């Protein structure tokens, strides 16, 4: 479990800002996560445990590189549930169990283009001083799924206090998905996160159980960040 080297994305299909990010992470037995992964991916585990993360944030200024951002369409809350994997070539990346978004066009486009498991949800993100409240509830799903999170952000982590796990959980430059039955990777570029201390004030969620995971045990490992600008690369089929 080492943070992968930064990936250069020369040709971007999408440019985005990820703002007001909160990282919540729990550890799960690898044998619990492994059956939920597509063929070709294995959990990036250590001592038989793998991390699962819930990341609520504000998607902002989302656009193709040749078009301007549109005010309503390009800004909306998003929350993803992900884990950390190794591809067939040993490359590190993430795999999404779900991605909740508040804009139906974004959901339809991501599902059609990359087969990412986006869900259309009612979502809000409100900030009052150092406290941010995230809420989400999926639309039109029999099982439903949702969350409510209140988190207080604190001072910036001194670089000397950030360890290997902190970098690993926040520094990932590749996602994996399955498109037309074929394992596919997409590289993502972003500068290093500016990480802050954070504390959960209140949390209710059933995104993990909706994904087929048991409810996490214990308090999560928490980070927050003002955000980063990202470049999303073109998909590449893994042969």
Short description:
By secondary structure, the protein is mainly beta.
- In CATH, the homologous superfamily goes by the name Acetoacetate decarboxylase-like
Q: What is the multimeric organization of the chains shown?
A: single chain
Indicate how many domains the architecture comprises.
1
N- and C-termini, Cα separation: 24 Å
* Number of helical stretches of at least 4 residues: 4
User: For this structure, what is the CATH class?
Assistant: Mainly Beta
Order of helices and strands: EHEEEEHEEEHEEEHE
Major beta sheet summary: 7 strands, mixed, barrel
Mean pLDDT: 93
Kindly provide the radius of gyration, computed on alpha-carbon positions and rounded to a whole number of angstroms.
17 Å
Name the shape in a single word: globular
Helix content: 10-25%
* CATH domain topology: Acetoacetate decarboxylase-like
Main sheet strand line-up? 1-3-4-5-9-10-12
Question: How is this structure best described in words?
Answer:
A seven-stranded mixed barrel has the order 1-3-4-5-9-10-12. It has one domain: Acetoacetate decarboxylase-like (Beta Barrel). The radius of gyration is 17 Å and the shape is globular. It has helices spanning 30-33, 104-114, 164-170, 207-210; strands at residues 12-29, 42-43, 49-63, 76-86, 92-101, 118-128, 131-138, 146-156, 174-179, 182-189, 196-205, 221-237. It is mainly beta and 239 residues long. The protein has four helices and twelve strands. This is DUF2071 domain-containing protein.
């Amino acid at each position: 479990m080492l943070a992968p080297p930064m990936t250069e994305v020369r040709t971007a299909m999408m440019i985005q800002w990820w703002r007001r990010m909160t990282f919540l992470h729990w550890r799960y037995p690898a044998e619990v996560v492994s059956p939920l992964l597509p063929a070709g991916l294995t959990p990036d585990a250590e001592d038989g445990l793998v991390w699962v993360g819930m990341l609520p944030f504000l998607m902002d200024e989302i656009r193709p590189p040749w078009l301007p951002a549109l005010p309503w369409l390009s800004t909306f809350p998003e929350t993803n549930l992900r884990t950390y994997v190794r591809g067939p070539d040993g490359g590190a990346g993430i795999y999404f169990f779900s991605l909740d978004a508040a804009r139906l066009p974004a959901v339809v486009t991501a599902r059609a283009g990359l087969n990412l498991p986006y869900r259309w949800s009612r979502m809000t993100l409100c900030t009052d001083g150092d406290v941010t409240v995230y809420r989400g509830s999926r639309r039109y799903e029999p099982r439903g799924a949702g969350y409510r999170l209140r988190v207080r952000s604190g001072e910036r982590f001194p670089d000397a206090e950030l360890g290997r796990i902190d970098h690993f959980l926040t520094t990932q430059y590749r996602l994996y998905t399955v498109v037309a039955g074929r394992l596919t990777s997409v590289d993502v570029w972003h500068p290093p996160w500016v990480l802050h201390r954070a504390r959960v004030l209140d949390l209710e969620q059933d995104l993990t159980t909706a994904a087929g995971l048991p409810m996490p045990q214990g308090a999560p490992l928490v980070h927050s960040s003002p955000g980063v600008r990202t470049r999303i690369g073109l998909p590449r089929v893994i042969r």
